[in-house]
Sequence to fold (489 residues):
Amino acid sequence: MSVRKSLRFSFIEKYASFIFALIAVVLLSRLLTPAQTGVFAVASGLVNVAQIFRDLGVATYILQKKDLTQEQLRSAFTIALMMGVGFCLVFVLLSGLIADFFGQPELRLIVLILSGNFLLVPFGSIGLALLRRRMDFRSIMRIGVANAFVHSVISIVLAWRGFGPLSMAWASVAGVLANIVAAQFYLKGEVFMMPSLVEWRPIFRFGLFASSGLVLNEVSQRLPEITVGRLLGVADTGYYSRGNSFVTLFNQTAMDAIWPVASSSLAQLHREEKPLSDAYCHFVSFVTGFAWPMLAVLAIMAHPIILVVFGDQWLPSVPVAKLLCMATGVLLLGRINSAVLNATGNVVPAFHAQAVVVLLQFALLLVATPLGIEKVAWVAVAVAAVFSLYTTRQVLRLVQSGWRSLVAITARSLVITAGTVVPIVIMEAFGFGAHRSEMAYMLISGAECILSVVAWVISLRLANHPLMTEITLIWNYARGRGLGVPPLT
Fold:
């Protein structure tokens, strides 16, 4: 399957799943009390942290391994299953202690139910890894939508029947079961296989570095809020968290559909021993040409967006949101580099880069946090720059490319970004941002967004950016489907 089709199916899966999840959240917020939701959040939070270790990088190993043999696949499945059994037993044994520690007796049963996922997830994750290896994102889309649909329906029905927080726990198990059944259908029996440990050593070594890198990445994301909470208090933590949620929403709605396709296509090139230089440069060009203008618009419009969406009590989050938009843009290059390193099996350099960054981040946060949350956000920008530069050096050597071509690509994306924000800058310069009512904020902000999209498309065309080809294809497809759009000239 081509990258273009894969992206289409990946976006369909993400947005369909988002719609089901949104419906479930809206209904569950009326069927469950905040206390019931909080009890489940505690249990799921603990289990989700353990899920990082549970995979042990097995899915990434399957994705990047050249000439994957049946023995290697069986060994990978066995390691994943053994890790699942181990974590399941740990949480079963600790369920009572967890409930006592938080003073919530219901936690014990919720943890026991969720621990069952550790036994089930290996069957689904191996199947999804095989489908990603084959670039079969059509099947992945169907599996993901089935998972989201089953999870949402079960949680709503059980909550309506009075199961309380247990409804979300059982829904989680049901979603995983839906994954397994769907994967079994599309893989025609390849999900279940006989255990083997013949090839366990290279898989375990690979997985140890891969999963350790994921753990460090999770630590890096949580460190700012932890240090702010410890040194500045819960109010500042809330402001920083709200600013962070501003860019998290961008990642979830705009970027999360891209990374699986990118890593799968890069891994395919790696397995086929094809040059990666052109693919890497195209990937950087497409991602920065798409994401940087969006992040720039979000940063400039952070004040009206936060005011309208969250209310004026969250306005102290605006400077943080602006800086974190900048940090996210800088970090995009690092995320692309991480995808290349993992897709080519270079998990040790990826781990080293993450370790260096976490140590630097911790040291900078100790100095910056007492100075306020804005300085903490500046640390995020600095750390993102260091990580991106550090990993770019590794990747350019790996793909045998040079800095000159990369600088030319990013410079063109910066020009497009500048062109995109021109309408907003002009409107603000003429005083459209002053003394607005909430309704005026919404109307003028909407107009600014529309004009920015038009400016973005014009900038892409003037810069002769390859994204313009994709936009033209989408536009012509809409015309061909009779959606009433005019010719794009």
